[in-house]
């Protein structure tokens, strides 16, 4: 009977010791838990684009395939010559292969389709490194027979540097936000623990004519009426700082 009582006492002591260790561990974890503050920051840079990707399309519909192909080929060759005359480096000029599709109409009476002709198309992609030539390129391409034009995709050769500059502004903005919050909370900032960042850019609206009346002017006059606008480069960061309580006097 005495032996049984000793076993129970030992078990109770072990349970008490475990509870004490758990409590001490929780208190230590609470004491070591870092005090942090997490804030976001925004940065933006405005800059003018200095290059554009221009897509010019040529389409033709003719009863005979050879006629449609000849018309498209003639216009494409004229545009390629234009790019050479404008001193555009030919490594920045690309043409797609010819697309040919037969076209039919449906005869309800005969319950059959009839071949009425052929649709032929081709595209020319030009990476323009001098935006002063954009208006001239578009206007003269219209005159040569180009009948499909995509919106010029404007870009900057300094895009990566501008995005980094926007990120740097975002980090500075985040620190100002964190300092304001820390001061209001009666604390000060320590070093950053973690930073996550993202960047991007917003292209300007497609270049437009200054006035619609200028479309009636000569190509040489209208060529100078295209405006590219500005691009917006933005950066966003999320920063976690150590938060250090101010010492009490």
Short description:
The chain has 249 residues and is of the alpha+beta class. The protein has helices at residues 2-32, 65-85, 134-144, 159-184, 219-222, and strands spanning 36-47, 51-62, 93-95, 99-107, 112-128, 148-149, 153-155, 187-202, 208-209, 226-227, 231-245.
Number of domains: 2
Helix content: 25-40%
- Give the quaternary arrangement of the chains: single chain
> Which structural class best describes the helix and strand composition?
alpha+beta
Distance between the termini: 63 Å
* Poorly predicted spans: 1-8, 20-27, 208-220
CATH topology of the largest domain: Translation Initiation Factor IF3
Mean of residue pLDDT values: 84
CATH class wording of the largest domain: Alpha Beta
Signal peptide: 1-31
Protein name: SIMPL domain-containing protein
Keywords: Signal
Task: Break the fold down into its secondary structure elements and pairings.
Blueprint: H1 2-32, E1 36-47, E2 51-62, H2 65-85, E3 93-95, E4 99-107, E5 112-128, H3 134-144, E6 148-149, E7 153-155, H4 159-184, E8 187-202, E9 208-209, H5 219-222, E10 226-227, E11 231-245
Antiparallel strand pairs: 1-11, 2-5, 2-6, 2-7, 3-5, 4-5, 8-11, 9-10
Helix pairs in contact: 2-3
Signal peptide: 1-31
Protein name: SIMPL domain-containing protein
Pfam families: SIMPL
């Amino acid at each position: 009977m005495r032996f049984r009582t000793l076993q129970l006492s030992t078990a109770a002591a072990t349970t008490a010791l475990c509870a004490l260790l758990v409590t001490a561990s929780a208190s230590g974890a609470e004491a070591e838990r870092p005090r942090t503050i997490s804030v976001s920051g925004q940065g933006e840079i405005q800059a003018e684009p200095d290059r554009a990707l221009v897509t010019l399309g040529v389409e033709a519909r003719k009863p005979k395939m050879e006629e449609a192909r000849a018309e498209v080929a003639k216009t494409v060759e004229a545009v390629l010559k234009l790019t050479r005359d404008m001193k555009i480096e030919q490594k920045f000029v690309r043409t797609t292969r010819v697309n040919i599709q037969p076209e039919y109409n449906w005869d309800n009476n005969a319950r059959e389709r009839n071949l009425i002709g052929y649709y032929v198309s081709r595209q020319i992609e030009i990476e323009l490194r001098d935006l002063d030539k954009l208006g001239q390129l578009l206007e003269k391409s219209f005159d040569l027979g180009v009948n499909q034009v995509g919106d010029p995709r404007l870009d900057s050769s300094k895009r990566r540097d501008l995005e980094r500059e926007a990120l740097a502004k975002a980090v500075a903005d985040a620190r100002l936000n964190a300092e304001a919050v820390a001061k209001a909370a009666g604390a000060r900032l320590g070093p950053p623990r973690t930073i996550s960042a993202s960047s991007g850019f917003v292209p300007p609206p497609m270049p437009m004519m200054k006035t619609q009346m200028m479309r009636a002017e000569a190509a040489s006059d209208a060529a100078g009426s295209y405006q590219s606008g500005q691009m917006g480069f933005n950066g966003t960061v999320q920063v976690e700082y150590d938060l250090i309580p101010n010492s009490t006097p």
